[in-house]
Design a protein that fits this description.
Layout lengths: L14 E5 L4 H15 L6 H15 L7 E8 L2 E11 L2 E9 L8 H9 L8 E7 L3 H10 L2 E11 L2 E11 L6
Parallel strand pairs: 4-5
Antiparallel strand pairs: 1-2, 2-3, 3-4, 5-7, 6-7
Helix pairs in contact: 1-2
């Protein structure tokens, strides 16, 4: 019998949110679990395999210039993460996940604050979110993001989806 290593909810004060490294193996298990919880209707074996093998490697890509990687850890376990890159005055953020057991504890807000820590007030921040992810859209809206547009894309082989492009000025974010 395998030991359950799923992080248990802890007060946010015990969760360290800081720039840091995340191993591919820990990110694979974490993102697969988060994706399955967030998108149960899309959590087929093929898509979860793609999340584990392809999407995780793309999210953690180290060859991206000026990549910002923020990890949230509780008792050394990965419980949240976010990635961003600053281009032409806009921080493009992606790979933003918080363990489902820790939603609404402030960890996501702290990850975004860490990603934006040194941005100028007039810098823009942009995220792309699955349109059907009502919880994620509500989270970003609560931070001060507004929907700037939508795009259709094939994120997984043979699976078209709509992404909401959400944006905000750094100075207007509630972080």
């Amino acid at each position: 019998m395998q030991k359950d290593t799923t992080p248990q909810p802890t007060p946010q004060s015990r969760t360290l949110v800081a720039p840091g490294a995340i191993s591919l193996s820990e990110a694979q298990a974490f993102l697969k679990r988060c994706f399955a919880a967030a998108y149960p209707s899309m959590a087929t074996a093929d898509i979860l395999d793609n999340v584990e093998r392809v999407q995780t490697a793309e999210i953690l890509a180290e060859d991206v210039d000026d990549r910002r990687l923020v990890a949230a850890r509780s008792q050394e376990n990965l419980v949240g993460m976010g990635v961003g890159v600053l281009r032409h005055g806009t921080l493009y953020a992606w790979g933003f996940y918080v363990d489902p057991a820790l939603h609404r504890t402030g960890i996501g807000r702290r990850i975004m604050a860490a990603l934006c820590a040194d941005l100028a007030d007039d810098a823009m921040v942009e995220v792309q979110v699955y349109t059907e992810s009502h919880d994620a859209i509500a989270f970003y809206t609560a931070l001060g993001f507004t929907t700037a547009g939508r795009i259709e894309t094939e994120l997984f082989p043979g699976h078209m989806c709509t992404l909401s492009i959400m944006a905000a000025k750094r100075s207007t974010l509630e972080i």
